[in-house]
Design goal:
2 domains, D-Maltodextrin-Binding Protein, domain 2, alpha/beta, 45% helix, 13 strands
Length: 364
């Protein structure tokens, strides 16, 4: 072999090795997040800024995520659990501690939100706040008034949880969030501790829920299209979704009056966190992703798209005025004081609640 050929082969091998090293340095990032829970250009902006390819998957429930994490082989680098679920997952040791030195944008995080999430994650070791909100009541007033036969009474859980009211509104469609935590909402409505550790309280909650079961059309964690299309007129729902529902209805040429209510004493507060599973194969990219999402410009872009409150207060001037001025997205201190926070259940109670929920959905 000539010296020239040897040089060419050595050069080709060097270039191949260099390309392989660069590909490894950039790599891929596997993200598991909720449906319609990120800005449409955020992923492409991150890929352009870092050279990291994002493989983005959709999460359907906290229980699905928990099963993946507890298996020890989640297959993801960043996941988005609800705070009350993450508390249990932390105890199970399924998360990698956040290396905050790699998240300089931590300085932008809301100290109040950090204090709240620290109740589930002491010291904020494993979870990074993403967005937060409440669970309240979503009503398509236009469809509900038609079914009711006139003006509706005040928007409280009486509309949904009193069987005589549910029977009327079933004509225009009733739905519930597909989460066992609906029992906590019922307990709050009943005037009991929504985070009661007593199985008897949970059983009582399901007895009350059973009274409206014949009128429930379906259960879902994504009812945006159903409410926007008019297939559902009343449901439990999340604070950010109703703005998207209004957008969708308007885009479809439907003149619906869609509203959100936070029933006094029975509105639950929740947080979505970002966590890095222990089995992540690209923890460095995971930290870069988390840090990227905490920049004020990107946080504002996310809120403007998904209409949920982010955990970066300095992003608010960049949030659309109709959202920044929405009292359900940016509630007052008095409103916040009236909300209860969903807390994790002990294992035995959680299992019992899940069984009761499955039986409830099946109509047994």
């Amino acid at each position: 072999m000539s010296n020239f050929k040897r040089i060419c082969l050595l050069l080709a091998a060097s270039l191949l090795a260099l390309g392989s090293n660069l590909a490894h340095a950039q790599g891929t990032l596997k993200v598991l997040n909720w449906s319609e829970y990120i800005g449409p250009e955020v992923i492409s902006k991150f890929e352009k800024a870092t050279g990291i390819k994002v493989i983005y998957s959709i999460l359907d429930s906290d229980d699905t995520l928990q099963a993946k994490l507890l298996s020890g082989n989640s297959g993801y680098d960043v996941v988005y659990p609800s705070s009350n679920y993450m508390a249990k997952q932390i105890k199970a040791g399924v998360f990698e501690p956040i290396d905050w030195a790699k998240v300089p944008n931590k300085k932008y995080l809301d100290s109040g939100v950090m204090a709240q999430t620290a109740k589930h994650d002491p010291g904020n070791v494993y979870g990074v706040p993403y967005v937060w909100g409440t669970e309240g009541l979503v009503v398509n007033m236009t469809k509900a008034k038609q079914a009711w036969g006139g003006e509706l009474p005040p928007l409280t859980y009486d509309l949904l949880f009193k069987p005589e009211n549910a029977k009327i509104l079933a004509k225009c469609g009733i739905a519930l969030i597909d989460q066992p935590s609906e029992a906590s909402v019922m307990l709050a409505y009943m005037g009991r501790d929504p985070n009661s550790a007593k199985l008897s309280d949970t059983q009582d909650a399901f007895k009350e829920l059973a009274k409206i079961r014949p009128y429930i059309k379906f259960f879902s964690n994504n009812m945006i299209s159903d409410v926007a299309s008019g297939d559902v007129c009343i449901s439990t729902g999340w604070s950010g979704d109703y703005n998207v529902m209004k957008r969708r209805a308007k885009a479809a040429g439907k003149d619906f009056d869609i509203r959100y209510a936070t029933p006094k004493g029975a509105t639950g507060l929740w947080f979505t966190l970002m966590g890095i599973p222990k089995d992540s194969t690209n923890k460095d990219a995971a930290h870069k992703w988390i840090n990227f999402l905490l920049s004020p410009e990107i946080a504002a872009e996310i809120t403007n798209e998904i209409t949920y409150t982010n955990a970066v207060p300095s992003s608010k001037p960049m949030v659309k005025p109709e959202l920044a001025n929405d009292p359900f997205l940016y509630p007052s201190d008095a409103q916040m004081a009236d909300y209860f926070v969903f807390k994790p259940q002990e294992t035995d109670l959680l299992r019992a609640t899940n069984k009761l929920w499955l039986r409830y959905k099946s109509g047994l």
